[in-house]
Target: Dicarboxylate carrier MatC N-terminal domain-containing protein
Amino acid sequence: MQVDMAILSILAVVIVFVIGAFKQNPLHLGILGMFVAFVIGKAAGIADTTIMGFFPTTLFVRVFGIMFFFAIAQANGAIELLAKKMIAKFGANARLMPFVLFYVGVILGSIGINSLAGMAILGGIGVSLAAASGADPLLYGMAGGYGIACGCYSPINEYTANIISACETAELTPNLIGIYLFCLVAFSISFAVIYFCMGGFKVNRDGTTMALNIDVLKDLPAFSRGQIISLVGIIAVIALVVVFGIDVGWAGICVAVVCILLGACKCGDAMNKVSLGSLMLICGMGTLINLVSELGGFEVMSNLLASVMSTHTVAPLMCITASILSLFTISRLVVITLIPTLPGILAAIPTASVGMAITATCAGAFASCVGPLSACGALVMSSLGQQYGEKEAQNYFTKQMVMGIVGMLVVAAVCWGGSYIGVFGS
Model:
């Protein structure tokens, strides 16, 4: 009976992923996750209140706290203005601008900007720059979003709360700084490959380099008092987390309260920028994942994955598995689903590196994020549609999907190399 329930619980997760991949008349996956958790829990004979106990309260506080703080900087326009000022500081060389957008995204993600907000802002700016200059709008739109994805591995970004929570469920200890630095290298290499695959290095027929029309970035206003307060608040959050070791969720809430009291933003405006949908997705699916773990479902999944892995293929195969799932769903959902499978895999293959396995799984969750069906890729498609019309935007669908696969393969290759070199030890 226990084995049957374990298998049933894993099948339930697969069904939820499939429903998420086909988004006709979509049902919110967080709500669906809670519903499925209740049904599976009752089938396993678990009491209602016990099922409620699987709700990830700690994860909710962490994600909400840091989301709420950065919602202030988003609501008062500080984030968008900061991004535009950073991009405007660099030259108007069309060949270099994709890298400028990418590393501006890395910086914004690294200081804690929410992935979807950052992707929407930089994707829109990139497509606008390309439209004004005749450059490749898909490359420009993807560049900033891919950079934001890389920066999301920063220890102060709310995204890493998912990594921490998933590792706690699996009784593993993540090296957040190590994951961040590894992804910085892997995603830089991956974006360089995407850049060359899309011909970003090409020059005009006369051999000159096309200059960008950056009129959209001219005459930018100075930061307002409220915007300055929220930007200083970012430094305060970093200090609380890195220097004083305060949990990122509580750090975000504490600094947010101070910023609002100092007039950085109206509380209601900030609350409106907090994504309730994202919170419900994380916590609803988190409830299901915790139940699956209790029923032993991840042991079944671990045995299946371990059967096709060896010491040096654990990392690349976990990366590819995470990337394939991420092509069709939210990256954080991939992390909280796959990391709990690692203990069983590592028990079956004890010579594999624990740190590399964790890092590869995390890296894979964003490696393919520029694909058109993922959250990042969908925002790029939206920016293309707003600029060129929906019909024209659809012409980029196949190319965008291919670039998502390229990103997956390159990051997986870096993970494979990292496992051989022993980046995180044995």
In short: The chain has a mean pLDDT of 84.
